[in-house]
Amino acid sequence: MTGRRRLGLVAATATLLASAPLATIFDSWTWLLQVLLTVVMIAGAAVLARTLRFPGWAQGLSMALALLVTLTWIFPSGHELLVPTPATLAHFAELIQQAGEDTRSYAVPVPDRDGLLFVAVLGLGVVAIVVDLLTAVFRRPALAGLPMLAIYSIPVAVYLDSVPVTPFIVGACGYLWLLVADNVDRVRRFGRRFTGDGRDVDVWEPSPLAAAGRRLGVAGVLVAVLLPLALPTVTGGLLSQLTQSGNGVGGGLGTGNGGRIDLFAALSGKLTDSTTVNLLKVTTTEKEPFYLRFAVADQLTATGIGSQPPSGNALNRGSLPDPRRESSTNQTTFQQYHAEIEVSDALRQTMAPTYSYPVGIKDLSGTWAYDPNQQVLYSNRSTTSKQRYSVDYLRAQYTPAALRTAPALGPDDPLRRAYTSVPVNTFVNDLVAKLTKGKTNDYDKARAIYESFSKKYGYTYSLQTQPAGNLAEIEAFLKNKVGFCQQYAVAMTWMVRAAGIPARVAFGFTRGTAEDGDTFVITNRNAHAWTEVYLQGFGWVPFDATPSAGVSGSARSNWAPDVDQTTSPSTPTSAAPVPDSSASLAPGQNQRPDRANDGGGTATAGTFSSDEENWTGLLIGGTIATLIALLLVPALRRVLLRRRRNAATIGPPPAVVDPGEPGPAGTVTGIEVTSEAAQARADAHAAWDELIDTMIDFQIAVDPTETPRLTAQRLIKETLLSAEPAAAAELLGTAEERARYARQPLQGAELTSALRRLRAGMSHSASARVRLRATLFPPSILLEWRLALAEAGTRTMEAASRARESLARFNLRRLLTRTR
Amino acid sequence: MTTPTWGEPTGPLTSAEFRAAAQAIMANIEQVIEGKSATVRLALAVMLAEGHLLIEDVPGVGKTKLAKALARSIDCSVRRIQFTPDLLPSDVTGVSVYNQETRDFEFKPGAVFANLVVGDEINRASPKTQSALLECMEERQVTVDGTTYELQAPFMVVATQNPIEMEGTYPLPEAQRDRFTARIAMGYPDPRAELAMLSGHGDHDPLNDLHAVADAALVRRLIETARAVHAADAVQQYAIALVTATREAPEIRLGASPRSTLQLIRTAKAVAALEGRDYVLPDDLQSLAVPVLAHRLIPTADAQLNRRTTDTIVSEIVHRLPIPHANRSPYDTRDGRAPYESRGR
C-alpha cells in the first residue's frame, strides 16, 4: 500500500477517534454507527480516487460525493432511490432546521433526534474530508488538529462546569497517531533509513532520534497531566473549587468587590462584570423567608469538601416532587408561598437560587433540571444571568419536640453510608463523643453539636483567617475557634457526620436586605453556607451554626435557635446589623462595614496572628539558618579536606623504617621501598592534590595532559607569582614528579608551608570575586560533587540499558528450547 | 672485528662523569652547528639509545654537517656512504671476491662495517639498496653468501634525506623508516646563528678543526648508563597509551609499531640521563613523541587531502592524552578529576 493511501486510512481512523466527544452529547450510540459508516465511505472514496490517480481537487470532490450519498442513505426523504434529488436536499434543510430547534429544547444527553444526528454526521463527514485532504493531499497533518479540536469544542460549549476528559484523550491519541504516521512516511520517502551506527534503534523506528522524541513526548504529557493536579484549584468539581479557593461562598463579605461570586462566575467561564454587587431581588409572600439555596456539598474528604454533579429530570418533563406526599410523618407543617426572583447579570451561574421544596417553577428560560435529592435547580447550558422567574415553594416548619421523635438511621442504610463518610480524626471524634454524651436521639445530638458553636464555647466570627479548604484547616478552626460561615458549616457537618447522622453543606444566600415590604435585595455579601442534617421522616433540616452577628440577613428557626441570644429566637430585623442599602449598592465600599461588623473577631484574630507571626518568624529564621548552613557545606568540606591533607603532609614520619622489604623479585632497578619513602610519596601526592584543588578554586585551568612540571610552570606564569610562591610551586611540582616517576621521592621537603605560601600568593594575585568564591563556594568541591553525580547518573543509565538489552534479548521460545 | 676485545673500563658512569662526557660531545658538535642545541642533544640521545638517526630537511641546512660532526666527535670507525641511484646493495654490505693468491673467496666488508655510518641522501638510492640496511640496522649483523658477520658496538646509522616531495628521490619503505629511532629536522638557523656561521665558516670549514672528545668505549659506557635510568610504571603506561593512540587515531592508516614503544622509552631514558636525571618523566616522552613516532605513521588519504601531517597528528595526541598518575592507569576513569574518554572507534 502506498504511503498516501495508508495515510488516508490513518486520517479516517483518527477522525473516528476524534469523534469520541460526541459520546457525551448523545444518549445512545446510534450516532457512532452512522458516523462509522460515513467515515468508511469517505475513506473508501479517497482510496479509490488515489488508486485512480485523481488530482487533489478530484479526490476532495469524490469524498464530498461519498458524504452526500451516505447522508442520503442514512436520512432518506423517501422520494429518491439511493441517489440524492432536490427533494433530498430540501429534506436535509428541514433536518438542519429541526436540529436548531432541538438544540434549544433538549438538554444533554440528547436522545436520538434525526436533526441532531444529521448535523453530527454531516459535521463529522466534513471533518473527515478536511482531515484527509490536509493529511494526504496537502501533507499538513498538524493542521488537521484544528477540525478535530472543533469536535471537542462541542462538549466544551455544552458542559459549562466540567468537561469529560476521556474523549479528549482518545481524540488526542488519534491526532498523535496521525502525526507519527505522517512523519514515518515522510522519512521513508527518503529511501532507506539512515541510522548512524545502527545501534539502539528498533527496526520500525524512522530515526535514532525517535526514541529521544518519544521520551520527550511522554515526559511532556506527564508534566501536562501532573502539573494541573498539583495546583489546588482544579482538583475537584465545581464546589470543591469554590470552597477551596478564597473565603468560600459565605465569606465573600470580607474580600470587597464580591470576590466569591466573581469567582463562581469566572469558573462558569462567563465573567462579565466584576463591580456589581446587587445579585438578586426577591419578592416573596413569606414574611420571614429562610435562605435561598443553590448548591450542596455532600462529599467530605481530607482534601476538602466536594459535591457530586446534580442529576435529575428536566423541568419540562414532569412535575417537581411534593414533600408533603413523600414525608412519612405528619409532624411537619408545610405552608405554600410564592416568590418572584430577579437575577442581575452579575450572577451568572448554572445553578439557580431557589427556596427549598419548590413545587412549581415558571418563566425560567433555557433548559433546567431539578435534582430532588440535592434539591438543586441546575442547567448544563443556561445560566441565571438576567433571569426572572417565579417559584412556588413549600416552607417546612418543625418543632424540636417533633424532631426528637425522628428515629436514627440503621448503620446499613444507604443514605447513612453515603452521608456520614468522613476522614477519621480522633480529635473530632473525642469532641463529638463529649458533646453528644447522654443524648439519645439524632436531633438532640445535632442540636448539642450545633450549640457548641457559640460564644460560650469561645467561638468568634472573623473573616481574617485564610481558608485552606482542607479538613486540617477545619480541625484548626475547631481548636482556635475563629472563622466564618464556611468553616462553621463544614465543621458542623463533619461533627454531625462523626456522630453517625447524615449531614451536608448547603450553599446559598441569606435573606438579604428588606426593601419596601416583601422585597429583599441580596448582594454578594449575603452569600452563605450552612449545614443540613438528615432526620428520618423529616428530610434535610437546616442548621446554621455561624454566629448570626457575623452574617447579614441571618435567620434562625425555633429548632435551631440563635445560641448566642438565649433570650429569644432571633428575628430577622434584629439579628443582623445590616448596613443601609445605599452602602451595599456602592461597589468598593462594602469592605468597611464588614470590618466594623466583626470587630470582636478581628481583635482575637490579632492575637492569634501575632502568635502566628512569632512562629512564622522562627520558621523563617530557621529556614534561613538552614540555608546558610547548607550553603556553607562546600566551604566546610574544603576546609576539612585541606586540613586532612596538611595533616598528611606534616605528619611525623613513621619511626619504623623497614629496610628489609625487597622490591619485586627479579627487578634490578633497585627501588628502595621503605615505609619512609612510601610516606614521602603519599605526602607529595596529597600536597599535589591540594595544589590542583587550589588551582580549581582560583579558577586556573587544570589540564590533565600536563605533567606536574609543566603545570607548575604554567601556574607561575599565569598567576604572575612572586618569587617565594613561585619557588613553592616549583617545589611542589618537583616533589610530585619525583613521587610519581623517580626511584626515590623527595624527602624532608616542607610541603605544607610551601602549600600555604603558594595559596597566599595565588590569593594575592586573584581578584576579590575569585577569592570570595574560592573561600565560600570552592569550585573544586562543587566540581567533585558534580562529577560524582554525573558518574552515578552514567552508572544508572548503563544499568538501565543493560537491563533493557537483556529484556530485548529475552525470548521465551529460546528459553524453552534450551530447557528441553 | 666482531666484538671489542681490548681491555677497557666497563660499568656505568656516575652522574657527574656522564654529564661531563655528554656535555663535551655536545659542545664539540655545537662548534660546527650553531644554535641547534636541542637538535644536537636529540641526536646524541638517539646515539645513547642505540638507535639510528634520520635527519630530514631541505638541502643546505647542515644535515650532513651534523652527521659528520657527530662522527668526528667520537674517536671510532666512521664510514660514509653517498647514496646515489646506481648504488648497489653489495656496496653497502660488502662482497666476496675471489682471491687469486689464496684461491678462495674473500669477504670485502662494505661501508656498514663501522661504528658510525653516515648515509648521505639515503633516499636517492633505489629501494633495493636502501633495503640493504634493513638487517644491519635492526640486528646489527650482515649476512653475505650465507655467512653472518656481526657489527661493532656501538653501531649507529645517521642518514640524511631530502623531504620526499623533492625530485629524484625514492621514499623510504615503511619497514626501513621504522628502523630509524628518530627523525629530526634541522630547520633554518635563526639570524644570529646564521651570522655566527658566516663569520666562523667564512674562511675555513670548522669541521676540519674538530677533534674527537670520546671513544667507542666511553660511548658504550654512556649507553650502559643511560639504560639504567628508571622508567616508572606510570611512564611506561603513558608510552603505551601514546603508541596505542596513534594506532586508534582515525586519521592514521598505519600506527606505531611495538618497536617504536621500545625505542621511545630508550630514547626517553637517554634524554633523562642527558638532563642529569635518573628517572624518566612524561615530559621526556612528550618532547620525543613527534621525532620518534611521527615518521613511522602513514596517514589516511583523507588526512593527506586535508594537509594533515603526521607531526601535527602526533602532537595533537600528546595534547589530548592525560598524564598517568602514580599507580593509576591512564585508562582508569575513576580518577575524579580527569576522566579520560577513549576516543577510539
TrEMBL record, chain A:
The keyword Lipid biosynthesis does not apply. Residues 561-587 have a biased composition (Low complexity). Coiled coil: none annotated. InterPro entries: Bact_TGase-like, Papain-like_cys_pep_sf, TgpA-like_C, TgpA_N, Transglutaminase-like. Residues 303-333, 551-609 are annotated as: Disordered. It holds the Pfam family DUF4129. Keywords: Membrane, Transmembrane, Transmembrane helix. The chain crosses the membrane at residues 32-49, 56-75, 115-135, 142-160, 166-184, 216-239, 615-636. Residues 477-547 form the Transglutaminase-like domain. Gene3D superfamilies: 3.10.620.30. Residues 303-316 have a biased composition (Polar residues). This is Transglutaminase-like superfamily protein.
From TrEMBL, chain B:
Keywords: ATP-binding, Nucleotide-binding. It comes from the Bacteria. Signal peptide: none annotated. InterPro entries: ATPase_AAA-3, CbbQ/NirQ/NorQ/GpvN, ChlI/MoxR_AAA_lid, P-loop_NTPase. Residues 325-345 are annotated as: Disordered. Residues 245-317 form the ChlI/MoxR AAA lid domain. Residues 52-181 form the ATPase AAA-3 domain. Transmembrane segments: none annotated. Belongs to the MoxR family. This is MoxR-like ATPase. It comes from Actinoplanes regularis.
